[in-house]
Design goal:
The protein is α/β, with parallel strands linked by helices. The protein has eight helices and eleven strands. The relative contact order is 0.23.
Amino acid sequence: MSLPFLTPDDVERAIPAVRDHLAAGKLLAYPTETVYGLGSAPTEHALDALARLKGRPPKKPFLLLVSSEKMPEEWGLIYSRAASALADAFWPGPLTLILKGGEGRLPDRLRGAEGGIGVRYTSHRGMRRLIEACGIPLTSTSANRPGSPPAAGAGGIGPMFTEAVRDGELLVLDGGVLGNVPPSTIVDCTEPLSRLVREGAIPREELRRAVGSLAP
C-alpha cells in the first residue's frame, strides 16, 4: 500500500493510518532530506521485523529520527557539550549524532559498539510533522537491500520489497523522487571528544567552522 506524502494536506491525511500501522508493529518506507528510509516504532518486535526486511545482521543498529531537539532527552538520551553545539548549529538537517543514555527507554539493540544511539532531527517537514503527531521517534535505515543503492523514489521500493508491500507489512509514503543527496554525516558524541564516524552531506570543515574545537 502507498499513500501520497507530498503536500501538508497529504501528510495530515496519512497520519492516522501511519499511527495505527506503527502501533501494530508494522514497517514504513518514507522520504527524508537525504534518501528514502525504512523504519518502525522503536520496539523490539518492530526492530526484528525491520532487520528481517532489510536483511541486516541482528547486531547492526538502526538510528532514530526525531521531530525536535528536545525529543531525544524525552527518551532519556543525553547531549554532551559537543552534541549540544552541533545540534544547535546543524539541526534540523543531515547530521546524525550518537548520544549516550536511553537505558530502560529504548531497545539496547539500537546501540552501536560505542554504546550510544544514533539520532537525527530531520529537516523533512512532512516527516517532522508525522513523528511529532505519532509522539515517538522513528527508527531509520536506508531503503535498499544490502549492497544495492537506496531507492530514489517511492516507485523503486515496491519492486525491492514486493511481498512486504503486498502483504500490508510495509506501508510506503510517496514523497516523490528525491535529489542526489549524500547520506547524513555521523558524529559520535558519547565521549568528551567528538569523533567523525562518516563524512556525508555536511563536510568536516563545515562542522569545524560552526563549532570550532567541539567538532571532530
